[in-house]
Amino acid sequence: MDEQVWFQPWVWLDYKLAVLFTVAIPLVLLIWALFRKQATLTQLLIIYWRVASLLGITVYLLIAAWPVGYLTGFLARILIPLSLWFWADINEEIEDQPPGAFKLALTSWRWAVSVYCGIGTLVTIPFLSCAFSGAALRTPFCRVWLEAPFLYREWFHRNTSPGFLGFLGAVGLTVYLLYFAAFMITRLGKRGRSAIEQ
Q1: At what angle do helices 25-36 and 101-124 cross, to 10 degrees?
Q2: Less packed terminus of the chain by CB within 10 Å, N or C?
Q3: Which residues have C-beta within 8 Å of that of residue 54, sequence separation ≥ 6?
């Protein structure tokens, strides 16, 4: 980026926190839950990964500088905490867990990622204009959010065109929306806030 904005370091901090709270810690917790054979908590983390995949899709959309990426990133910050606290049976299972390192780690992470996403949702509201205005998208105000996705492309997809990576993001978003619609229409109506099949 030729022109810097004052909040650029904060944007980079947000991406670093996202890697920590939405990728690294939940991956460790999922492996830990599998190792402990905690089926219900493994189910919660699998639900989390399904929902949080919208963040990965967002990165690919932003690599192509497609405006919809600003909207999907915003929505992901809303859906992630919902996916962690919505399920009544999983909440009860976590409450019934004996005190220990795993329960503390899981509970601490749920609160931490919820606070992170809540603050992030509020902070990114002004950037929703980037999703609806081509002129705004060309300004440093919006383009600062593209720096980390561009760096990601340099590290992992150096020889792949941004347009193709954006296309992969669009395919991912289409699958995500179809799955989400199916969940809302069929599963949510039948099972309500129960995540585990009886």
Answers
A1: 150
A2: C
A3: 72, 75, 76, 79, 173, 176
For 17, 52, 117, 155, the CA distances from 83, given in Å and listed in that order, are 19, 9, 12, 30
pLDDT digits (tens, 9 = 90+) for 59-93: 999 999 999 999 999 999 999 999 999 998 899 99
Contact 33, 42 (CB under 8 A): yes
Tokens encoding 123: 């902070």
In whole angstroms, how far apart are CA 50 and each of 43, 100, 142? 11, 27, 27
DSSP three-state, residue 93: helix
Contact 155, 19 (CB under 8 A): no
CA distance 146 to 59: 9
- Round to whole Å and give the CA distance between 63 and 164: 10
Q: Token pair for residue 19?
A: 């890697």
The predicted structure's pLDDT at residue 1:
44
| Helix H or strand E encompassing 152 | helix 147-156
Query: Which one, of 177, 171, 166, 182, lies nearest residue 66 by Cα?
Result: 166
Share of the chain above pLDDT 70, in %: 97
